[in-house]
Specification:
single chain, mainly beta, 15-stranded mixed beta sheet, 12% helix
Length: 260
């Protein structure tokens, strides 16, 4: 059986997400993933996130690279027709090293319903620590990625056919084992032009340590850190651009697409 978009890869048994708390959580989850994997040298890009094939969220991205720091600034706005259900107006700023994608700083300004907050995470890859929003420090072992730097690494890694590997990813101070594998290649036709893509799957396996931050986090982080969460990326083989993401969920899956 093909997916809603007719793509040829079937979700593996046990690889689908466990149900999230609400549609809002699903949408924010996918938006953040798309933010972190925007094209490296883009000045501005736009994406649409859809549920049941209905566009519900607009995403805008701007990036800049100054010397040894890559900075991405991201914003998401729920479409006006859905704002009466739940208001979303989040902005995120991410700093990373462009050669290794090691994280340096992550600031999230949260505006979800009545919830307002600003949270800052500071990464010291020399001392192997993270400073959490509370001021607490926790371990950040060598070769560990943050959620966002992991997504950037997945995008720009030189994947070989059939490659599979395990990485460690930090989410709100807690470390997770993540399984990555190449499912194959597929030709997509986003804007009337055929593009050869590699299809990469990422699955959270289990928590393995760290100190989870205290207090309320954003909806994304609260819902993503769950065993067997799975995403699928279509990455342009030539440019590393992400054209679409598929998140298998029940009863309806979520898609995100790059806008022309």
């Amino acid at each position: 059986m093909k997916s809603e978009e007719g793509e040829k890869f079937k979700p593996r048994r046990g690889a689908c997400f466990q149900p999230v708390n609400s549609l809002v959580g699903r949408l924010i989850f996918l938006v953040i993933v798309f933010w972190t994997i925007s094209p490296l040298h883009a000045e501005e890009y736009h994406y649409t996130v859809s549920y049941m094939k209905i566009p519900v969220l607009n995403v805008s991205i701007s990036t800049i690279q100054n010397q040894d720091v890559w900075t991405g600034s991201y914003s998401a706005e729920i479409k006006p027709a859905f704002s009466y259900i739940y208001e979303i107006s989040n902005t995120y700023t991410i700093q990373a090293e462009p050669e290794t994608w090691n994280p340096r700083k992550y600031v999230k300004k949260i505006h979800e319903g009545k919830h307002r907050d600003r949270q800052v995470f500071l990464y010291d890859t020399q001392a192997h620590t993270i400073t959490l929003p509370s001021g607490e420090k926790t371990n950040f072992p060598e070769s560990t990625h943050s959620l966002f730097s992991a997504m950037l690494w997945i995008q720009h890694h030189e994947w070989s056919s059939g490659e599979s590997r395990t990485e460690i990813v930090e989410i709100d101070g807690q470390r997770w084992q993540i399984q990555l594998r190449v499912l194959g290649t597929e030709v997509v036709n986003p804007f009337g032009k055929k593009v050869q893509t590699k299809v990469v799957e990422a699955q959270l396996v289990q928590p393995i340590g760290g100190e989870k931050m205290t207090g309320r986090t954003d909806y994304l982080s609260a819902n993503i850190a769950t065993k067997d969460r799975t995403l699928r990326f279509w990455v342009d083989i030539s440019t590393d651009t992400i054209y679409r993401i598929y998140v298998p969920m029940s009863p309806f899956s979520v898609w995100a697409h790059l806008k022309e």
